[in-house]
Known about the structure:
The protein is an alpha+beta fold.
Amino acid sequence: MRLFHVHISGVAGPHSVIAEAEQAAIDDALYTLGLSELPEGSSVTSEQTGDT
């Protein structure tokens, strides 16, 4: 599991979520914010969590 930070263009702060894959983190952010796709200029960063 990784901690993903989805930085969405036009949103003040990143959406952070623990997920197994980047696409799952993006899907969670889109659902939470009521979006259908990531706006241009958005990005995703990740870091390893303590879970294995």
